[in-house]
Write a structure and sequence with these properties.
globular, three-stranded antiparallel beta sheet, alpha+beta, OB fold (Dihydrolipoamide Acetyltransferase, E2P), single chain
Length: 129
């Protein structure tokens, strides 16, 4: 498992998700903190292409040897890509939560929502509180 880290270029959601904003698209995943608490992730139940996700609402489930957890959307938008590689290799979420372990990509419906997310520094302070 990787060392604890929270890349500064990402934005973080209070429910332990992250968003990498690039133009009008955002890539979503779960944070190091989330994958560490879940422990060994064995299954990712992705949403379908074209579905809409709403900020703060669940859009998928991740199953680990410990629990099944809902994944909440850090931003709203239409799903334009799903990381299908996770169907056969969900452990990538543990091994590389900010790289190969990304979950979905969305075309944001309201890019200003990103301003409401935590910075890496603020997210770290929140999880340690």
């Amino acid at each position: 498992m990787p060392e604890e880290n929270y890349p500064a270029e990402l934005r973080y959601h209070r429910e332990h998700g992250w968003a990498r904003v690039e133009g009008d698209t955002a890539t979503f995943g779960i944070t190091w903190f989330a994958q560490d608490n879940l422990q060994e992730i064995v299954y990712f139940d992705p949403p379908k292409l074209g579905e809409h996700v709403t900020k703060d609402h669940p859009y998928a489930e991740i199953e680990s040897v410990k629990a099944v957890s809902e994944v909440h959307a850090p931003l709203s938008g239409e799903i334009v890509e799903v990381n299908v590689a996770l169907s056969d290799a969900a452990g990538a979420i543990n091994n590389d939560p900010y790289g190969q372990g990304w979950l979905i990509k969305v075309r944001m419906s309201d890019p200003s929502e990103a301003d409401l997310l935590f910075s890496a520094e603020d997210y770290q302070a929140a999880v340690k509180a």
